[in-house]
Amino acid sequence: MRIFTKKLPHPDMPAEEKAQLLQRSEYQERMVESTFLYLTLDLPTAPLYKDEKEQLIIPQVPLFSILAKFNGSTEKEYKTYKENFLKRFQLTRLPPYLIFCIKRFTKNNFFVEKNPTIVNFPITNVDLREYLSEEVQAAHTHTTYDLIANIVHDGKPSEGSYRIHVLHHGTGKWYELQDLQVTDILPQMITLSEAYIQIWKRREEDETNQQGA
């Protein structure tokens, strides 16, 4: 991927001083190319609403909304102890297998918080062509992915447990694994879980959909 980084002046700095700093070379946008093992998808802040029965309503977000981080134009601010940066990302090559890590956990000095937002995603036909830079799109014949594994975290950050949804390629059926217990699961139930890590497989040709979803 390409990573574009731009250093920002301190937000409390007077406007005139900011303008002067922004003219310096260290505040100009820089680009580096980097390999990646997985893509980290950031969840929006999750306010919990209550309905008329005082039951909590869990917020939801489409997968393509959080994938927009890698479209080459979406900017996000990153803060360090001393400096702030604006970054944007653009994919330049798609691997045969793609791993998404949905960032549910954030740490501060006192405890770990978990974001319970549900990510709405199709389990087949996820096309990532639009996230590639224009000059490399022509070199990618296949840009569509199907989900083959979904790791779920249930419960509180410190006390939770994990479940795994796995596609059996030979039959096209999905199974849920937790410890030594293996059960069938309907594909539409997978999308209701608090997905944490996902593995997607690229279609190398026009494959027939065997997953029934």
From TrEMBL:
Catalytic reaction annotation: Thiol-dependent hydrolysis of ester, thioester, amide, peptide and isopeptide bonds formed by the C-terminal Gly of ubiquitin (a 76-residue protein attached to proteins as an intracellular targeting signal)
Q: What is its EC number?
A: 3.4.19.12
One molecular function GO term is: cysteine-type deubiquitinase activity
Biological process (GO) annotations held by this record are:
protein deubiquitination
Cite the entry's keywords alphabetically: Hydrolase
One Pfam family, short name please?
UCH
SUPFAM superfamilies under this entry? Answer: Cysteine proteinases
Q: Where is the USP domain?
A: 1-203
What InterPro entries does this protein's entry cite?
A: Papain-like_cys_pep_sf, Peptidase_C19_UCH, Ub_carboxyl-term_hydrolase, USP
The name of this protein is ubiquitinyl hydrolase 1
Q: Which organism is it from?
A: Formicarius rufipectus
